[in-house]
TrEMBL record:
This is Uncharacterized protein. GO terms for cellular component: cytoplasm. It comes from marine sediment metagenome. One of its GO terms (biological process) is folic acid catabolic process. One of its GO terms (molecular function) is dipeptidase activity. Signal peptide: none annotated.
Length: 245
């Protein structure tokens, strides 16, 4: 049977299931995740949530962990049947979409003795690849702090944090023309004020910055410059919180 260790790397839902002994040590990732607002009934092709407003699986996350589990069990059966030497490790990796689990799992040393890692991701086609694949990514929240004021009575007394967010977003969208075709850039405004007639003194925007190689760091620096431009233009203060990379 697999030996299962729970609650690893400071995450209650992170686990490793191990079987076998000796080298090679092969890891299979079991990705799972739940994204906000996409609860969905199975077998229904149009939007029909199980619970309105609840989280759900996106881009095949309901199958990836299951497929990884099946693969690990198949390897165990092969080890038993043919008497191969080696160790199979199945890694339960939560929060795949936001890159939360694996940086902490690496930091905790969970992959230190692993010789190779196999991952899977649902797609519209069937294929395999090896070596470096997928995208490196920065997940970062940019928060601007300004000064509130009445939007009709004394707007000149305020400094709009929402204006800073919008200027940043305009700058990054103009930047898209000059990005290499492998770059991916997306954002969502998390906070933008309470009422139209109140100058927002706080606003934030959450960015994903992706690329397939180390040039993602160069791109990330450009996004930070766009954020600084928004703060400079509006007289607001900028704080940057990198959630994962």
């Amino acid at each position: 049977d697999f030996k299962v260790e729970h609650g690893l790397a400071g995450m209650p839902t992170c686990f490793v299931a191990s079987y076998g002994s000796g080298k090679p040590v092969i890891a299979i990732l079991g990705e799972f995740d739940a994204l906000p607002m996409i609860s969905q009934k199975g077998g229904v092709s149009k939007q029909d949530p199980l619970l309105k407003g609840a989280p759900g699986h996106g881009c095949g996350h309901n199958t990836m962990g299951t497929a990884g589990t099946a693969a690990a069990i198949a390897v165990k059966q092969a080890l038993d049947k043919y008497g191969f030497q080696g160790t199979i490790k199945f890694f339960g990796s939560p929060a795949e979409e936001t890159l939360i689990s694996r940086p902490y799992m690496i930091r905790a040393g969970l992959f230190d003795n692993v010789d190779a890692v196999i991952d899977n991701h649902s797609s519209s086609g069937f294929g395999t690849s090896y070596g470096r694949g997928g995208n490196a990514m920065f997940s970062t929240i940019f928060t601007f702090k300004g000064k509130t004021a009445h939007g009709a009575g004394a707007p000149w007394a305020g400094r709009s944090a929402l204006d800073a967010v919008e200027i940043m977003n305009v700058a990054t969208n103009f930047l898209r023309e000059h990005l290499f075709y492998t770059y991916r850039l997306h954002y969502v405004i998390q906070e933008g004020g309470e009422a139209p007639n109140v100058v927002p003194d706080k606003a934030s925007v959450w960015y994903f910055v992706r690329n397939s190689d180390e040039r993602v760091e160069e791109m990330y620096d450009k996004i930070i410059n766009c954020a600084k431009a928004g703060a400079l233009a509006t007289g607001t203060e900028l704080s940057i919180r990198c959630l994962a990379a």
